[in-house]
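Quick start: what a row looks like.
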Amino acid sequence: MSGTYTPGGEGPPIESKDQLIAHLASGEKPRESWRIGTEHEKFGFTLEGHRPLPYEGDGPGVRKMLEGLTRFGWAVIEENGKPVALKRNGASITLEPGGQFELSGAPLETLHQTCAEVNGHLKEVREVADEIGAGFLGLGFSPKWSLEETPMMPKDRYNIMKAYMPKVGGLGHQMMFRSCTVQTNLDFSSEADMRAKFRASMALQPVATALFANSPFADGRPNGFVSYRAHVWTDVDPDRTGILQFVFDEGFSYEHYVDWALDAPMYFVKREGRFLDASGQSFREFLKGRLPALPGELPVMGDWEDHLSTLFPEVRLKTFLEQRGADGGPWNRLCALPALWVGLLYDDTALAAALDLVKDWTAEERVALRLGAAHCGLKAPFRSGTMQDLAREVLAIACSGLKARARLNHHGEHEAVFLDDLDEIAMSGITPAERLLELYNGPWGGSVEPIFKEAAY
């Protein structure tokens, strides 16, 4: 789902906004070609001392992890002579700023394949990690290490982002270095289909945030939220994050998203393998050859794709739709997140039901749900009920959508089996974060150290 392109100034110049609109429209696919892409991040740590993994050094480290994984057929991608990513069969492993290990899965046809991919990846990671004395955590936020203790990966774009973040928000560095998510990328068949899926998933993103809320700790103690990761995103950069209310405007189109993206400040441009600081500069001016970082030069499509990748709304449009509202978690919930959204968006009847559910929500209610999900999860109030009531209704719709797809595994099971954990959470009304807090306040005796066993893969 990540697509292929060559950023860095190659290819014909972009001379009009129409080319940018056409790029988004190029993602349209017939239903039989729709695929599922799943991405997830995880925190590496040393088994001895439970410290974050540095990039390199004598002990366990990120570089050793990347180099160790090459035995499984992964090809190394380098930056400035250092391995920073791996590629294999349409999938990639990349590094977030603080060393969070991200798998961007290949585009797959069924959720059964998705879960097999996740399981295979975690098995490979575990083999290498065991050898070097490392472990990996499935959480939404770093439970123990301070920002100062968290290493920074050797990728030039992160230097530019790190310098820019404090100018536009208070928690950008927390997002970069201390958060982890699970996301799913899904296709659309037309502009109308994109519009319907964008609206349903943007409105319902707080439901996913609540169901997957899994980040109640920071700096070794409770942080006051069930999804601190979701709270962090409310103070990163208002120009490129949050709920895009214009998605719900009548006639919303590719062009509206392009206009928003053009007005979101840039981070960088890449030329000849080097990242040039364009932070705060305008892609609109770039289209006119007036970018201060590259005066007189027009952008190419790689520049536009780079720019789109630096925008972080709760649902992001590229040549597919990215669902971005969930905390990282254990392997079973890495399979549950794509199941939720495939069930809601890939069946026409389910999508119509989801749209009907959210059709009269106000902009204020959507914002309140987002904030409530981060603070109190399924207990967040909504109209005459709670987020829990919404979650149960949403899961029923998703289950019907998955059953209608009728994609069975070799045991004859529907894809709806991947919703079982979410059904249990919704029925109980207790988020994963609250389960962790119960342990912290009980058997763990007020220490987060046991989480390095409880939440490890």
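That is the whole record. Residues 263 and 455 are 40 Å apart (CA to CA). Confidence is low (pLDDT under 50) at residues 1-7.
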